[in-house]
């Protein structure tokens, strides 16, 4: 099984993903680590990526998913997966891939981003990501206003993993 923790920047994908992986004893991957250098530089400068620029990155994440599934290695992947087309591409109609949407209001996310240190994506990309986001249907949705431990435990409970 592969769980993809999705949402706009600043929703806690990495925090929740790592916490879930630790609680479950699964592997954790951050999709940000798979961006080409050119994409990172563009985002660092506050310039949103277009679909063409995202395509090689999405291919890398899809390869990671397939490798995890083929190796029978349960994994958690933190990945924005903002559009339905991206999620469909990553899911590949495989039932072993589950999306969890971390949802929050713009004000909460903005405050988080303003205090975040050491990440290439700053507050300037939030508006673009919110415009790009196509909220998923039929997935587990978690409210980011709760403490990370509560969010992780609720995800595990909803997926009946422990």
Q: Which secondary structure elements does this structure contain, and how are they paired or packed?
A:
Elements: E1 2-6, H1 13-24, E2 27-30, H2 37-44, H3 51-70, E3 75-78, H4 84-91, E4 97-103, H5 106-115, H6 126-132, E5 140-143, H7 148-159
Parallel strand pairs: 1-3, 1-4, 2-3, 4-5
Largest sheet: 5 strands, parallel
Q: Over all CA atoms, what is the radius of gyration? A: 15 Å
CATH superfamily: P-loop containing nucleotide triphosphate hydrolases
Q: Strand-residue fraction?
A: 5-15%
Kindly give the count of domains: 1
Please list the strands of the largest sheet in the order they lie side by side: 2-3-1-4-5
Name the helicity range: 40-55%
Question: Cα distance, first to last residue?
Answer: 14 Å
Following the backbone from N to C, one meets helices and strands in this order, namely EHEHHEHEHHEH
Tally of alpha and pi helices: 7
Fold and architecture overview:
The protein is about 50% helix and about 15% strand. The chain has about 160 residues and is an alpha/beta fold. The protein has a single domain (about 1-160), classed as Rossmann fold (3-Layer(aba) Sandwich), CATH 3.40.50. Strands 2-3-1-4-5 form a five-stranded parallel sheet, sandwiched between helices. Helix 1 (about 15-25) crosses helix 7 (about 150-160) and helix 3 (about 50-70) packs parallel to helix 4 (about 85-90). The protein starts with a strand and ends with a helix. The mean pLDDT is about 90.
Task: Jot down its keywords.
single chain, 162 residues, alpha/beta, Rossmann fold, 5-stranded parallel sheet, 48% helix, 15% strand
């Amino acid at each position: 099984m592969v769980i993809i923790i999705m949402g706009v920047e600043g929703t806690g994908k990495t925090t929740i993903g790592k916490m879930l992986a630790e609680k479950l004893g699964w592997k954790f991957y951050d999709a940000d680590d798979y961006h080409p250098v050119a994409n990172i530089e563009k985002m660092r400068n506050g310039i949103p990526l277009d679909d063409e620029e995202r395509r090689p990155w999405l291919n890398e994440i899809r390869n990671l998913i397939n490798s995890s599934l083929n190796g029978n290695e349960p994994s958690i992947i933190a990945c924005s997966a903002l559009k339905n087309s991206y999620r469909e591409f990553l899911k590949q109609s495989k039932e072993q891939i589950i999306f969890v949407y971390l949802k929050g209001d713009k004000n909460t996310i903005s405050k988080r981003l303003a205090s975040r240190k050491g990440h290439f994506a700053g507050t300037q990309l939030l508006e673009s990501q919110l415009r790009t986001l196509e909220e998923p249907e039929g997935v587990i949705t978690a409210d980011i206003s709760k403490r990370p431990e509560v969010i992780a435990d609720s995800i595990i409970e909803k997926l009946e993993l422990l």
